[in-house]
Fold:
Amino acid sequence: MQAILSGAVPVLIFMACVGLATYAQNLTGFAFSLILLGLVSVFDIASVNDAANAATVLSLINAWTYFRARPGPVPWQLMKPALNGSTVGVIVGLMLLVWLSGSAVSWLRGLLGVSILICAVLLLLQGKPLPAVSGRTSFALIGGLSGVLGGLFSASGPPIVFHMYRQPLDRELVRRALLLMFAFNSLVRLVIVVPTGHFSWHSALLAGCAMPVVYAATRLHHRLPNKLQPRTLQWLVAGLLFVAGVTLLATAWTAIAHA
Structure:
């Protein structure tokens, strides 16, 4: 019985982390993988690789539940250049993940943390949105960069989040666009990771146990939608970016120090 309980506790903690990350994702349109990976690293309940693979599956579940609960147009045309760029980016990111040593990956995770903190500061300094929606080339380049981070860490949020929150678009449309982007990146990542044998049974267990949590948290948000002002939401997004960046920096520093 003690062995069963000791094995169940990490899974229960993981499910609680998933619930928090899912609600934050539905509130802001991003941060699921960033928050989940950060909390997993803090509590040391699973390897980063297993948590990233589980987050990949759960991102798809979250997007499916959200779009089902909130039917409406999916911004395919707006995000098509970014999706094309992210496809290439995810492949490049996974190739880098296989090629790099553990120490180099830790340095990259630290660099990701720095970039997230910079995004948080720039987002707060950005008082007004752009006068017009950015061009296709800009979306493609940002999508490619997000895809690389998604392939490496299953955390493609920072570049595309900063890019989308600068656009003169309705915030609900931004959330739907970001969910579409993350779901697409997750699908591409799964199509590559599963056949190559880099998706462990532990990842599948974590994802399977947390699926009901993702569904319940998303439905709860649908019943209790946020009524935050745009500037308040902007501060919340920046705050989540800051916490995620600091957490990634701390975990990267710990891994480098122990290497």
About this structure: The CA atoms of residues 74 and 176 lie 7 Å apart. The radius of gyration is 17 Å.
